[in-house]
Structure formats: C-alpha cells, structure tokens
Amino acid sequence: RTLAMVFEKHSTRTRVSFEAGMNQLGGSVITLMTRDTQLGRGEPIEDVARVITPMVDIVMIRTFEHEIIERFARHSRVPVINGLTDEYHPCQILGDIFTFVEHRGSIRGKTVAWIGDSNNVCHTWMQAAKIFDFNFHVASPAGYELEPERGESYESAHLEVFNDPMEAARGADLVTTDVWTSMGFEDEKEERKQNFADFRVDSEMMSLAGKDALFMHCLPAHRGEEVDAE
Q1: pLDDT tens-digit map of 147-196
Q2: Residue 20, Cβ neighbours under 10 Å: how many?
Q3: By percentage, how much of the chain surpasses pLDDT 70?
C-alpha cells in the first residue's frame, strides 16, 4: 500500500513516525511538501485531492485550518488521516494515551491535567476524555482559556477548568503541556512569555500530582519555559 503525506506545516515526529510505520508494515510513502508542489503556487486543495488520491491508498495531511482537511476529504477517493490542524491533533493524543497504557495500564477513570494554552492538543484531549472515559483538568492563563462554547460541547462529567495550575495538577495521573507559542503565533512570543510565566511545569507542580504520575509533552519542548529541564 502507498501512503501520501501532504505537509503544509513542518514536522519532525509526524513525518518520521508515519514513514517508519509504513515501512515496517511493508508499505511505501510519498512525501509532498507545499514548497515542492503546486500547493505552493495556490492550487486548490480540492484539485490536489482529485489528482493524487486515485494513485494512493491512504493520505495523511498536516495543515492549518481544519476546514482544509475537510475539503480534501470530501474530494478524496481514499481515507484521510488528520496529522494536525489548528483545531485538532488526534494522532498525538492516541500516541500519548497508548504510552500511558503501556506504562500505567488503562486510562479509564484516571485524571489528565493540561497546563497551558487551550490549543489544538488541548481540544483533542477533551475529545479523548469522553471517548476513553477519563477526567480532564484544564488550567490556562487569562485570555487563553477554553472557549465556553467548546467546553459545553463535551460532557461536563469529564471536564474541569481551573484558574490555578497547581490545583489542576493536584492528584493527576498524567500532567501534560505544550509550548507557550505555537506555530503561527510567533509575533506574540514575548507577550506570551509574560502571560504564561506561572504555568511552567516543574518539580513543585509534579509533587502535587499523583504518586506515580507521568509527564508528557507533544514536543518540541522549550526547556525553561513551559517545562523545567529536569
């Protein structure tokens, strides 16, 4: 089988993991970067779907607006995997949950604490909490909180929002975070450093989490910002 990977956003882990996985399973991979294809010259995503999907068995896309992957899927002849959009990052969360299961067993009934921006990774953890039946704590700085309408779309039984990151982490089985400045928000870097200063995961925060709590980061990590190097 052949996997086509379409990258409109740069990647390290997504590219390596998908290529390695396909190779180990006996498949092959075609990698398409925006700069190397007609996408870089403004070709509509619908036409890209019409052209490449008759020639491959499955497609993975890593892109910006979630609408782009939905438009592609509507015109695709094969299954489409979300490798990341600005709204969701399902493969990351599946990988994190699998890692938790490997180290600690079932995640059902456990507590995951998210410390930081309510971004695409946070949104997908919320989806996962409902599907896998675990508790999800969210703590974000003022101005970067979860949108009320987004929180209301998930079962409140699985979601609890905190102002204090320490309280969000208290008793958690898994503490996780992301960079303070995601791709596309580089102009806000200095402002975000100030606003997120109290939301660094460090040994003090981890000491409040459960005895056997794990820490995870979707990477790349900026040590000394969202997480201490230790």
Answers
A1: 876 666 666 789 999 999 999 999 999 999 999 887 667 788 889 999 99
A2: 11
A3: 96
Transcribe the chain into DSSP letters: -EEEEEESS--SHHHHHHHHHHHHTT-EEEEEEGGGSGGGGT--HHHHHHHHGGG-SEEEEE-SSHHHHHHHHHT-SS-EEEEE-SS--HHHHHHHHHHHHHHHS--TT-EEEEES---HHHHHHHHHHHHHT-EEEEE--TTSPPPHHHHHTS-GGGEEEES-HHHHHTT-SEEEE--SS-TT-GGGHHHHHHHTTT--B-HHHHHHS-TT-EEEE-S---BTTTB---
> Above 90 in pLDDT, residue 59?
yes
Rounded CA separation 106/134 (Å): 10
For residue 35, the model assigns a pLDDT of 79
Buried b (16+ CB within 10 A) or exposed e, 136-167: bbbbbbeebebeeeebeebeeebbbbbeebbe
pLDDT for 5 equals 95
**Tell me, what's the pLDDT at 21?**
97
Amino acid symbol at 151:
G
